[in-house]
Write a structure and sequence with these properties.
The chain is an alpha/beta fold. 39% of the residues lie in helices and 17% in strands. The protein contains eleven helices and eight strands. An eight-stranded mixed sheet has the order 1-2-4-3-5-6-7-8, sandwiched between helices. The termini are far apart.
Length: 366
């Protein structure tokens, strides 16, 4: 894109100054320089998909509808295979599952379905941590239903009630309405916290990959509205937040370079008009100015040594740190994008242990 829009999404007026947060420096993993042996031996089905789309993109422009169709097909075949692992089967059994509907509100134009995963040992408690979660899939694929096993596992490991938001996907729904789905779900849960068995002052937001974009976009929205107090902490995981994929691939890591073709189509799917929204932090959260970052909820950012978003994630972590909003940064060594979803890998338990520790230290005990 060559035409940059004039900022119309906010100003420095009415800034609510938030106190700088202090990190407990929980995570200091030494990076390995190579994939874990179990990850390398198993191969990476998602990497193969990305490489195929990247190769295709050199032959033709991938239409957003085509990218979405192929990624949705990949998710529908691959995630049920992951969910068959006994770890996930048990996690589903260890949770009670319900559903709530968020009415259209706060400028949104649709109801939002939310699946609720409550560990059975938390059922009779009224002071639980609530975590709203946005599933992955580049914001063009995946569903809350597909993620039930993975989020049941996260709920039981982290001792939280998970609100699994079934936000609308691009290209059918464009930015910022997918973010509004999540934002409205957050406000609904906060307002009904007592009836939902959670503590309104212990609510977090999270999501991975494209869901990390939804999470970060909600951080932007909360900052714009001076509502970051609604969230105790944000936990974006391997988030998709930047226009970095439109830069020169020769300067990228191999993982980033392999994903360029498909991800460019992802962003075109999300944008109403990519040129006009080019500078909008609701589309690219990494373009938030410092004064807006200073108004965001405090965050723990999770990355991975060989992630496809590693550069943009680490850069954003540094910006949050310098602006007093980074609680912690966790880069999982030896694994790639979403490797931890495979319950057979060692990094699966490493991730869940780190996530639980972040919840305990930055939401429960903070």
């Amino acid at each position: 894109p060559s035409v940059h829009c004039t900022h119309t999404w906010g100003s420095m007026n009415n800034i609510r100054v938030l106190q700088r947060v202090k990190s407990k420096n929980l995570f200091n993993f030494i990076q390995k320089g190579k994939l874990d042996s179990d990850v390398a031996a198993a191969g990476d089905a998602f990497k193969i998909f990305l490489q195929a789309q990247n190769k295709l993109s050199k032959e033709k422009d991938i239409r957003p509808e085509e990218q979405a169709e192929k990624l949705r097909d990949w998710y529908s075949h691959f995630f049920p295979k992951l969910a068959a692992h006994p770890v996930y089967v048990k996690a589903l059994e260890d949770c009670d599952h319900s559903e709530l509907s968020v009415p259209a509100r706060d400028g949104n134009d649709a109801e939002v379905k939310v699946l609720v995963h409550t560990p059975k040992h938390l059922n009779n408690k009224k002071d639980n941590v609530g975590m709203l979660y946005a599933h992955g899939g580049g914001a063009i694929a995946g569903t809350a239903e597909l993620y039930k096993p993975m989020l049941a596992k996260l709920a039981t490991e982290a001792n939280v009630v998970i609100f699994n938001v079934d936000y609308r996907l691009a290209p059918e729904t464009k930015c910022p309405n997918n973010i509004l789905d999540f934002y409205c779900a957050l406000k609904h849960v906060r307002e009904n916290a007592e009836n939902l068995g959670i503590n309104a002052e212990k609510i977090g937001i999270s999501g991975e990959s494209g869901g990390g974009y939804i999470c970060f976009g909600t951080m932007v929205k909360l900052a714009m509205e001076n509502e970051s107090h609604l969230v105790k902490a944000a936990f974006p995981i391997i988030p998709m937040i930047s226009d970095y994929v439109f830069s020169d691939p020769s300067a990228m890591t191999q993982e980033e370079r392999d994903s360029v073709g498909g991800l460019r189509s992802n962003w075109r799917a999300l944008a109403q008009d990519l040129d006009k929204q080019w500078s909008d932090p609701l589309l690219f959260p990494s373009k938030s100015p410092d004064w807006l970052i200073q108004k965001m909820p405090p965050a723990v950012i999770f990355s991975a040594e060989f992630d496809i978003f590693v550069t943009e994630t680490e850069r954003m972590a540094r910006r949050l740190r310098s602006n007093g909003r980074l609680l912690d940064f966790c880069s999982l060594p030896g694994c790639g994008h979403g490797s931890y979803f495979n319950a057979a890998f060692n990094c699966h338990q490493t991730f869940h242990t780190c996530y639980r520790q972040a919840v305990e230290e930055y939401i429960v005990n903070s």
